[in-house]
Design goal:
With 222 residues, this protein is α/β, with parallel strands linked by helices. The protein is 51% helix and 12% strand. It has one domain: 3-Layer(aba) Sandwich (Rossmann fold), CATH 3.40.50.300. The protein has a 5-stranded parallel β-sheet, sandwiched between helices.
Amino acid sequence: MADGKVIVFEGVDGSGKSTIAQFVHKHIGEDKSVLARNPGSTLLGQELRNLIKHRKDIEIDKFTEQLLFMADHSAFINGVMIPTIKAGKHVICDRHDLIGNIAYGYAGGLSKTKTYNMRRLFWGAPLIDLLFIFHCSRESSEARAKNRNKQCKVEARGNVYLDGARRVYEATAGDAPKDAEAMVEEILFMARTTVHVDANKSLDEVKEDVLHHLVEMGITSL
């Protein structure tokens, strides 16, 4: 039996990646794929997600927050990703902790040395087969965020913080600023194939773009 594929959707909060990840999971089939929301794809991850994103009564410094993401990633790889792909099913990831860690770590002032050392913990883990990076304007992400019932702690940090993460995602598609070059290399190193998606397009157009690449790789059909 051939191993399943690891498909990741990345981008700033409000880029529409979660909506498309759910769509792809249903399109491929719930019997052929597993949808993973990171952080939060294991019981431990659900507790960590609540702590990181919603527990406003507990303050967490930026470096400790990144370590919590790494704990979630370890539980996800060993408890979900590896067993699923070995069973021949695809893993659809709504965010990848390591990539999110790099982009949001950069926004929070995390050094490239700390990022590199954390990624070393997962050398030997399965690579991402297909990485979709969603690019959208601040205006688009703000409009989508307003449609949600409540704002999480990450979104509440404001546009300056989110724009820092956006810079890293945007830099993966072109010339990276000097202070983000190492971060961008780290992200692209993790994926066999990277696809850049204009998430400012309509939902139907984005779905069509994503499906085109999935079909091209033989992961699904139209």
